[in-house]
Amino acid sequence: MTPLTDFPTDDSGRRSSNSFGRSVVADALHTTDPAAAAAAERETDWRRGYPRHFRALVEAGLSADGSAAYEIAEAGLASVQARMRYRRDDGEFTLAQALMAAPGHPLETVEVTGTGTAEKELLVPYRGEQLRGDTLHRRLDAWVAAGVVEESVAEAVREVAANPDWLDLGDQHLVAFGAGAEMGPVASVLGWGGTVVAVDLPRQDLWERTAALASNSAGRLLAPLTATSGPVADPVGAADPGAIPQPVAGVPGVDLLSDLGAVAQWLLGFDERLILGNYVYAPGAAYPKLAAALDALVMHVRHQRPETALAFLATPTDVYAVPAEAVAQSRSRFAARSYRARAGAALSGGTLLRPNYPYDVEPGINDSLVPQQGPNYALAKRIHRWRATVARRDGVVSFAVAPPTRTRSVLSNRLLAAAYAGAHVFDVEIFEPATASRLMAALLVHQIRRPRPAAAAAWRDEATAAAHGGLWRTGYHPRTALPLAAVRGLPASRS
Fold first, then answer.
1. b/e per residue, 111-140, with b = 16+ CB within 10 A?
2. Superfamily of structural domain 107-324+360-494
3. With 353 labelled, which of 184, 227, 243, 374 sits at a CA distance of 20 to 30 A?
4. 0.90 cut: is pTM over it?
């Protein structure tokens, strides 16, 4: 059989993503909140009941001294790595054991060298314009005033714009896991003249798109290729410098669910400092498997190369502890709601247009989980957050909440597509992928060039440089406004 990262068997003998997620959440909560852990263990309908348990993970982490969040993150990660299996013909192993074994095959490196000119200033595409200088500053001011991003986003982007030499990451290699992701920084880093180590599935369409992007950029792209006895064509195209590489032996790329050891060995062969960027996505139950596999791989590399930096993009549709300023703006908006909104809420029996924050407290709890995205998505994203929390205590970590964005994966969900089309009615801005990815790339540069130590309370790190699109500061609890936004946006989403 092909080696495969997989869930453990549960009491019924099935490999269930629901059983795995329930157990991991309960393990994470066990020390800090035993009652919440027991409630997670008793949940009989995990697929529909998971949101309250993921909220409990945040609420239980808000201890006075800030230590509880770190304990939850450590316990959750330990549970993930202890439970997830790596299946081979000779048995089942932990992911750490799989990484220690000799890989079944080595990986070669395919290189694409771009022929373009490097961008020497920060440009942010936005609604048909390229924002720079004063226009960029005005847009940042407008986003902050509208509650679309936190002030720390604007401060960081302004500092990057004032230090354009920071953009060239040529002194290190960005390893982009999920290199084809629309939200990833690959296009930006290549455009600035940097080197990207692109790791994605060995699919012809992905490779052609990524290689073409690199060929037209000022940067350099490195990608893994399964070694074979056959020759490999000139990766930059001998006859045409802009040609898409066509390796004779196959399509560059690897499957992280099965090739963990080979990828680890390949990455450790680079001499430059690595930034391990997590931009992966997979549908359904494959996502937590992929998150666990990549988490094991990242820590294996970082254990041997402690200077390695980590980078993550967090989803805005999750639960976060947020600062008092966000709570205050949201409550002010709710208090100023129209008579029509008040009447609509009353007619719904309190199910629609409830306040985002019923009480004026710090931190507030913003619960923007979208149940339709499912518990597998929530768990995968929480694994990323936990690793960022733990790793920042002894290393460099870039972590930012990304804005809601019209990516292909989001728009494939009809409800989300409609809700995104109508979100502006509730003071939420939905970003285009080009804008969001460039904004997030600028925050990556800032957090790599100006790393900060871990805060005493982990939630403060997660709230820094959060570009949540307005979900933290809208007057209404997002799930109680989502149906109305979908109704408003349905005609636009269909077109």
1. ebebeeebbeebbbebeeeebeeeebeebb
2. NAD(P)-binding Rossmann-like Domain (3.40.50.720)
3. 374
4. yes
